[in-house]
Structure formats: C-alpha cells, structure tokens
Amino acid sequence: MSREQRTIGRRGLLQGGLGLLAVATVPGCGFFDTKPAGSGAQVAAAGEKESPMLKALVDKGSLPPLEQRLPKNPPVIKPLAGKAQYGGTWRSAMLTQEDTQWLWNGLAYEPLVRWKPDKTGKPGYDEIEANTAEYTVDADSKEITFTLREGLKWSDGKPCTADDMLFTLLEVQCDTGLHPDGIYDAFASPDTGKLAKIEKVDDRTVKLSYTAPQPSLISQIADGIFLREGAYGMLLPKHYFQQFHLKYNKNANALAKKAGVGSWTDLFAQKQNPWTNPDQPTLAPWKVTTALGKGSAVTLTRNPYYWKVDDQGRQLPYIDACRVEVVQDAQVELLKVMNGEFGMQYRNFGTPQNKPVVAQNREKGGYKIFEVPTQLTNTMIIGINQTHKDPVKRALFANKEFRIGLSYAINRKEIIDAVYAGQGEAWQGAPPKDSPYYNEQLATQYLEFDVAKANQHLDAAGLTKKAADGRRLGADGKPVSVTVLVSESFPDHVEAIEFVKKRWLAVGVELRTQAVSEDLYKERVKANDHDAGTWTSGTFVLPTGTGGDHYWVPTNDGSARYGVGWAQWYQTHGKEGITPPPEVQKQLDLFTKARNEPDAAKTLDLGKQVLQIAADQFYYIGTSSVPNTYGVVKNDFHNVPEQMIEAVAPGIVHPEQFSIGA
C-alpha cells in the first residue's frame, strides 16, 4: 500500500456546525462568557482550589501541593452556568466495546491544539486555539512550531517535554515497524512525499519544516485524528512507552511474547490504547481505573496533575469520577436514558423516532434535552460505481442520464415520513445552506419525484428496449439490475432502500440489496467489487488529508463508492486504477491545490470550484437532510450548553467544567 493510500477515517470526526459560545485562552477571560457566574455555586466552592479528595492526599503527604502540580500559566475555563462544585460521578454509556469515540470525545479530547466551541468550519486557523501547546504557523504553512505549556505534567507527575513529542513523531508515527505501509501524509511534504524536518528547538518546543505547504496538519490535530487506539499520537509519554520500543529496549520482543502477542510492534499498539491499558500516563481530565473489557463499565478517576483551572483558580475537573456503562443494544441505552440513569449522554439513542418518548419522560427521568446540530449532510446517499469491472455496467453507470433518471424515480417524501419520522427535507449529497461551501445546484437538482422525467432520462441513457415484464434491457440485452451494498451499521438504510427498490422497479430498473457487515462492505468497495453502495454523507472541509472530501471528489479508494478506480489512480499518481475523464482529473487537480493552499480565501474559492464540478458530474444520489441529534442532561448536572456542535462533542464544550450538585 502506498503512502497516499494510508488515509485516516473521518467518520464521526467531520467538521461543520454552528457557533454558540465565546472562548478565551488566557487567564482572566471567560471561556463560556455568556452569563455571570451563579453566586450560590461560587459560595459553595469558596476557598476550594482543588478537589477535597486530592487535598486529603496532599495533607497526608502522598501528593505534592497544587502549585507544584499545575503549569506556570494554566488555561482558564470559566464554568458556563457558574456551577463549580467538586465531586460526583458522571454516568454515561457506550454502545458495545466498539464505541470508543464516546470515550475519546467525551473524556479525553486533549490534543495539542483544539477547536473553539464556536467553530463553523471555515478554512484557516481562526477557529483553532492552543491546548497542551501554543502553536505558530508561518505565512506559507511550511513551518509549524509547537511549544508545550511550561510545567505541564503527565498524570503520574512526570514532566511533559519536547522529548515526548519528538519521540512520538520520530519513533512512533514514523517508525517503519509500527507503520510498515509508510508515514501518514500529514507528516510529509506534499511535493516530495518525504518526511518533514522535525527538530527540537528547546525543552518545550518542536518545529516541523516542510518543503511545500502542509496546512491540513493543524486542523487534523484539532479533529482528534491523532487521539485514537493503535500506534498513533502527537504527544505520548516517552518515559513510559520506551520500555515497549525495540530501539530503547532490546528485550521488547521478549516482553511481547510474554504478553502473548506476536512482536514488540503489536505490544506497543496494544499498550497505546488508554481504554484497555490503565497504566498509561495521560493528560486528560480523568484517568482509567477499570479498563475496557474488564467489566460491565469503564471507570475513571480524576487526574491529580490536570493542567486547567477555572476563573477563580480552582483546578479542574470538577467531577471526581466517570462511569461509562457498556451496553449491547441502542434500545437498552434508550431505556436507561428514559429512566434518568445518565448524568449527561448523547449518541446512539438520539434519533427522530426516539425523541417523542425521550421528551415525554423528562419529568420522570429528571433530565433536560440539549440539541446537537448534525454535521452529516445526508441521511442516505447512493453511489453507483462508474469504474465498474464489467464494461457494460461501467458504461451505463457512467452515463449521467441514467443516474438522473434514477434520482427522479425516488419518492423522498415517503422515505422521510416512514423512516425518518417526517424530519428533514429532500436533499442531494451537498453541504448545508449555512456552510461557506453551499452550492444550490448540488443540493437541489433532480430531487422531485417525477416518473415521467425518470423515464425520459432513462430513455436518454439508451435504455429504450424492455423485457416482457417491463424491465429495461441493457446494451448486452440483459435486464438492467443494480445491486446496492448496505452496511448493517445503518439499519435505517436497510429500511429506506426498500422504498427505493419499489420505485426503481416501476421505471424498469431492478434494485437488489445486499446488507452486509461494515467490514465486509468496506472490503468489497475497496476491491471495486460492487455495483453501488449507500452511506451517510459528511460535510465538506478544506484543508484536509489526502483522502478527505471523498463524497465530492474521488480521493479515497475505500470511500469513493462511485469511482474507486479513479481514486486508486489519484492515490498512486496514475500507476494503478482507472484514468478519470478530463473533468474529474481537473477536479482532482483543484482539490490537490486546495488542500495545500495556505491562504484561507483562496482555499474557499478552490473548494467552491471542486463542488461545482461535483454538481455537474452528479456522483451521488441523495435522499434527505439529516435531522439534528440530541442528548440528555440530568437536572443536577451543570454547565452543559443548550446546544453543542457535533464536532468532537462533547469535548468541544470542555467536559472538565461540567459539575454535579444541587
């Protein structure tokens, strides 16, 4: 696999949303400066600069005093509603052990730099702020410098320094044993594919120097791309992980054998997962005490060296502990939500169908509902493979008239009413109206249910001959059929595609459905072994990684269901895959230029050009806009906004300032 093919999945990490909160990064400025702090809560916490559970350890001499644990200038986070009580346990849930996104985004969103809570998805650096490190980017986005906060410490009390970052970048991200397929492209210069010059400037500062602009690195860090399981990261504790690295420990393979895994690389990746390895030091507000897989819940307790404070100088987080129950079914989670068992929870249960019963049980469950404006742009898109292995199907599927005819044949209203509880509007795969990249043509073309227009365009595609049963005959004389892959992870698609099947058959095109596991789905698509596939549609964002924005431009052979062969051509610089037609090549050139453009205004213009070609090409057939999701928060669980942006939610609104109490 080439370097270009090594793309990181962005599902659930998509950018966009709407602004709601003001932010600050220096002492004395309110992070959630929307209302005065509640005097009652301040009085209740008067004089307390740290949690009583930590003060007791200090008094016993088993923990250093607070001033020795905090950095020199800790970030100041003002509690949204002024509630500042220490204590309590935040109870929530994850759906099976696979749902680690809730853990990362809710309990450990602490990248080097982070999104501001009022993020809107505009290109540029204005919506990104310092977190564990201050950062600078030169005018050309070729030189990126990170300076860690002075006095920053890991949860075991050890200093966090430039050596940790240097180790993570050079010995983890760029180690050929840990990454045999090559380095991730964010660390390479786009013009050469060679590793950036990575150097230690001083004890707290690391500089990355590229030979061409690399503006996507900062936004990918803020997205939390490098906060995940496996041999990844931007900042890992060297003092802990070097024991598992062969360069630093010649016995690392023996350790792996003792642990029952193949080699040191397997053991290293295993140890780097904080949810299954509580021994790993962290910079997050809470550290794991009961690992994932060791019981019915993941439990965490406060990090005594956490490095943020509130506007009165109190160490955060306010909440002492977290308990994340592992449930096996979304309906079980829904019942627990309705029973008021969770302090704050969203994801999985927040469908339009469930909202009436969630709302009806608010008083009984003792909770409120908050809105989470979605970053998804379509409930179900259908990508018909224009690079099909079968030349007859390839020619038909690449005929735009065919795709237009199929789009007109869909009755979107009946799908919206039956599957999505009447929520949303007919919509193609396109950015929403409030996006800086909104394109009206892309969003609204070919949406109406019109059988006459459907037949007209299918005839124009050359499908004028029919079998006795009314099915249209292709160029090979066989009835036209399209087998659509549906991932079982989208049960709404399994239901919705049946409505599409009925309507397509009425205009002479047979639709066959194959509902498969998500892993098999991805395997089939990547192998270009599919007629078509459904998915949800994310939002458009630039700058991005090599494989980003694949909904609108064929950059990722694992995701561009409408043009896998084109994506392979793009990823391998023409060595593999199928040569795209001229307009698609032009779009790919514009995309490449846009993702490497350091000027935000030029990036926006290039992105609009990319989307205009997507509108003209009409890659995906969309269904409807996505209703906002929502969450619940107990009446005694405080400082949660009435709305939060879906990007890395709830991490984007600072869970460390959540508070429990009357």
TrEMBL record:
Membrane topology label: Lipid-anchor
Localization in the cell: Cell membrane
Sequence ranges assigned to domain Solute-binding protein family in this UniProt record: 132-557
The protein, known as: ABC transporter substrate-binding protein
Matching PANTHER family: OLIGOPEPTIDE ABC TRANSPORTER, PERIPLASMIC OLIGOPEPTIDE-BINDING PROTEIN, PERIPLASMIC BINDING COMPONENT OF ABC TRANSPORTER
A molecular function GO annotation: peptide transmembrane transporter activity
Biological source species: Kribbella pittospori
InterPro entries: SBP_5, SBP_5_CS, SBP_5_dom, TAT_signal
Gene3D superfamilies: Dipeptide-binding Protein, Domain 3, Periplasmic binding protein-like II
GO biological process: peptide transport
GO CC annotations on file: plasma membrane
Pfam families with a match to the protein in the record: SBP_bac_5
